[in-house]
Amino acid sequence: MPHIVIEYTPNLGALPFDAMLASTTQALSESPEVQDEADLKARVLRADHFRVGLADSGRGYLHVQLRILAGRTPEAKKDLSRRVADALRGHLDALPPGLQAYLSVEVVDMDRGSYTKVRLA
Amino acid sequence: MPHIVIEYTPNLGALPFDAMLASTTQALSESPEVQDEADLKARVLRADHFRVGLADSGRGYLHVQLRILAGRTPEAKKDLSRRVADALRGHLDALPPGLQAYLSVEVVDMDRGSYTKVRLA
Amino acid sequence: MPHIVIEYTPNLGALPFDAMLASTTQALSESPEVQDEADLKARVLRADHFRVGLADSGRGYLHVQLRILAGRTPEAKKDLSRRVADALRGHLDALPPGLQAYLSVEVVDMDRGSYTKVRLA
């Protein structure tokens, strides 16, 4: 069930998204909270337009939502969040010079009782 | 107020999104929880990059967020979730052969007190 | 930390997104709830496909998620929501004639304990 949604601003240069997603799902699959690696559904959404605060340029970011079924402990959620941040940071050391860039990770509880999952094919 | 957000991986072949959205809003409009059909705001977001678990290929998915104002019973939320899944499944029987594909539906409570809605034109 | 995510249907004509985002971050930066303007991370996501209720055409919308760290009062959340709506409305007075268009703003609490933020460069 964990969904990993990465949103990013397109001023970060060419990012190795395939490697970033592979590292992230690998790191999460090693968590005791994840039962089945095939539940790890990751995706990337590119921002059409963006802005950081009051600056017209020179800033960018990636933001990750990790959406998990509710019920984890605060410690488990913190650990999952850190796994995602650590997995991504390793791929983000060649950003355009002079850019003020941020990475943030947010853990979202999904309502368990109304979650529907279907195998299509 | 219900927002329907469908995110999908682009390896599922050509999907009939217009028909999928029409079926989904139709099914939801028939729920006693929906007062005004014009409140049903559906949209589709395409993932630029994606990954499912530890597999480099051969897997895909659609994930739906149904965002409703808080206050529904667990039963009502489960029913809404199932309406969405059933409406979409009817359009997903011709996926690329050999693909391991999933559909999931998540119901999200939106904070009622701070929700703003404006008619623009 | 506030994340501002604007999703929109592409039938609203050419929208001045840069000005819309500038007004929004300006209005939010003036709130006592926002400590550092550089925390205001705004982005725009375009819907590939969309539908409003049972109508095949003639309707469109923008929906904003304002994602803030949990702990604000209901009044503060309502004020933040209204700031976003007011900032955007000023730029939305030239929509295509005959279109039935909506703007909605939703405030989402983010889990504070598991939120990770890293300065990359």
Give me the number of helical elements of chain A.
Answer: 2
* Gap from first CA to last CA of chain A: 17 Å
Helix content of chain A: 10-25%
Task: Classify the secondary structure makeup of chain A into a structural class.
Answer: alpha/beta
**Which of globular, elongated, flat, extended, rod-shaped describes the shape of chain A?**
elongated
| Main β sheet profile of chain A | 4 strands, mixed
- Please identify the oligomeric state: homotrimer
Query: Most extensive chain contact?
Result: A-B, 33 and 39 residues
**SS strand fraction of chain A:** 25-35%
Which stretches of chain A are low in confidence, meaning pLDDT under 50 for 5 or more residues running? none
Order of helices and strands of chain A: EHEEEHEE
CATH topology of chain A: Macrophage Migration Inhibitory Factor
The overall strand count of chain A is 6
Question: How does this model look, in words?
Answer:
Three copies of one chain form a homotrimer. With 121 residues, chain A is an alpha/beta fold. The first copy, chain A, has one domain (3-110): Macrophage Migration Inhibitory Factor (2-Layer Sandwich). Chain A has two helices and six strands, in the order E-H-E-E-E-H-E-E. In chain A, strand 4 (59-69), helix 2 (74-89) and strand 5 form a beta-alpha-beta unit. In chain A, helix 1 (17-29) runs antiparallel to helix 2. Chain A starts with a strand and ends with a strand. The model of chain A has no long low-confidence stretch (mean pLDDT 97). At the A-B interface, helix 1, strand 2 and strand 6 of A face strand 3, strand 4, helix 2 and strand 5 of B.
